[in-house]
Specification:
Layout: H1 20-32, E1 37-40, H2 45-50, E2 54-57, E3 60-65, E4 68-78, H3 83-102, E5 105-117
Parallel strand pairs: 4-5
Antiparallel strand pairs: 1-4, 2-3, 3-4
Length: about 120
């Protein structure tokens, strides 16, 4: 009986396509995973109109160029946390998870804090 071995190889015409919705899901999960992030904000309407090759979802828009991505994330943050530290952690986590899950280089993660909540329901 012949055994079947699993091999990884790539043929010249093979392609892998990752839908932009997957990238948005990864970025959203990474941002919401950070302590101090209450929820995602909203992308300003003016930005949505200007972005022709970008992908927009609640609180996020992504620009994909080749094998790299730029992420704009709009946040509502708990005021009990240091806003700068929360922003840095969001940047680090989005960068790490994009590389880990899809192997894409992140050109930039730009964090926009739209509001802070001094009291919120947990």
């Amino acid at each position: 009986m012949e055994s079947v071995h699993s091999r990884s190889y790539r043929e010249p015409n093979d392609t892998v396509t990752i839908d932009h919705a997957v990238l948005i899901t990864i970025a959203r999960a990474a941002a919401l995973n950070i302590e101090g992030v209450v929820r995602l904000g909203s992308v300003p309407n003016t930005l949505e109109r200007v972005l022709g090759r970008s992908y927009t979802a609640e609180g996020l828009y992504l620009t994909v160029e080749g094998e790299s991505v730029t992420v704009e994330v709009f946040l509502i943050v708990d005021a009990r946390h240091n806003l700068r530290q929360v922003s840095l952690k969001v940047q680090e986590d989005i960068n790490r998870t994009m590389l880990q899950y899809v192997g894409m280089k992140v050109q930039a993660v730009n964090v926009h804090i739209e509001d802070v909540l001094f009291e919120h329901e947990g």
